[in-house]
Design brief:
Layout (H helix, E strand, L loop, with lengths): L2 H27 L8 H4 L2 H39 L4 H19 L1 H18 L2 H7 L4 H41 L7 E10 L2 E9 L4 E11 L2 E13 L8 E13 L2 E13 L4 H4 L11 H13 L6 H28 L8 H27 L4 H21 L4
Antiparallel strand pairs: 1-2, 2-3, 3-4, 4-5, 5-6
Amino acid sequence: MNIRTIINKGKNNAAYRKTAELAGRLGNRLGWLGYVNPKRYVKLLDLYIIKKFIGTYFYSIALIISISIVFDINENLAKFTQYHAPLKAIVFDYYMNFVPYFANLFSPLFVFIAVIFFTSKLAGNSEIISMLAAGVSFKRLMRPYMISAAIISIMTYYLGSYIIPKGTIVRQNFETMYKNKKRNTSAENVQLQVGKGVIAYIQHYDNNRKKGYGFCLDKFENKKLVSHMTASEIQYDTISDAKYHWKAIGWRIRQLKGLREHITSGASKDTVIMMEPTDLVFSKGQQETFTSPQLREYIGKQIDRGSSNVVQYEVEYHKRIAMSFASFILTTIGLALSSRKRKGGMGLYLGIGLALSFGYILLQTVSATFAINANTPPILAAWIPNIIFTFVAYYCYRKAPN
């Protein structure tokens, strides 16, 4: 070996040492990235359970919703024929919005069925026993179940808050046209506060034409009337880029300044009045057609106006959040019930699961009624089912096999 080879090796070793030192420093600074690496938390066993959970969840949805569609077609086929509903509208306007609405509504039921079904199968094949015997605690076993529940929870909230309300509008319009479901399209003697010290009154409002009759608008300052506007008709501008644009027809304005009075009138006038058609006509289930941001905006606007007819909207807003957390609670209960291997198979667990799921959905409906009719705070009414079932989940968790 000559001297040149020795020198080159020395240089290479020095470069290697510098590279190693730099990599070590960089590794120390970026060591926190290891904590956000999914592979640190999701192992092969977790992926196996997550695939089983999510797959069974969507399979149960497809199975039960398919049966529901068959029954719905059988029930409404005569009406579809009577009102000459086109096939394209039936498929895309009705059933394409029917499926996600009811799938999301009964999501707690599908979560429970999925957990009970495939966990009972794992327990029946002694796979749960093998996991526990290998040193996997029940708490560690819950990890893939909670990850799956988180995925379903996020999906449920997003669908219920942003996607399904838009489809509900299309579905309700279809039902009005082809199932003869009457909707409230007019209002009588509407009075509401549209601004600070500004009161609007409409004798009759037709939502189909977006037109009101017998309109007046009063403005108060320091509890004194300073302006009184009347119009025989007002027409909402549906093509305007901005909100609250109305056209007053046959208008007359009285300006009151002390003992003086100034009157102006005209045939038509474009004006801005802080109200919309949705503020004037209330129909059953209207809150389901609002996205969550729209609900929040509507509730705030109605509270500022002093309206008391916002309870069902507040319940709907909080219910969407509460329902997304139901996946965690019902997953815990289902896992605790079905992880123990017993004689008789999964029939008993499925029965218990169905009873608990329907009990949760029933409790949601009852608690919403309490908020509307018994002055229960809307946020409490929406969370009552979760609060009660959290205690059930904790009890089942304590009794789970370890």
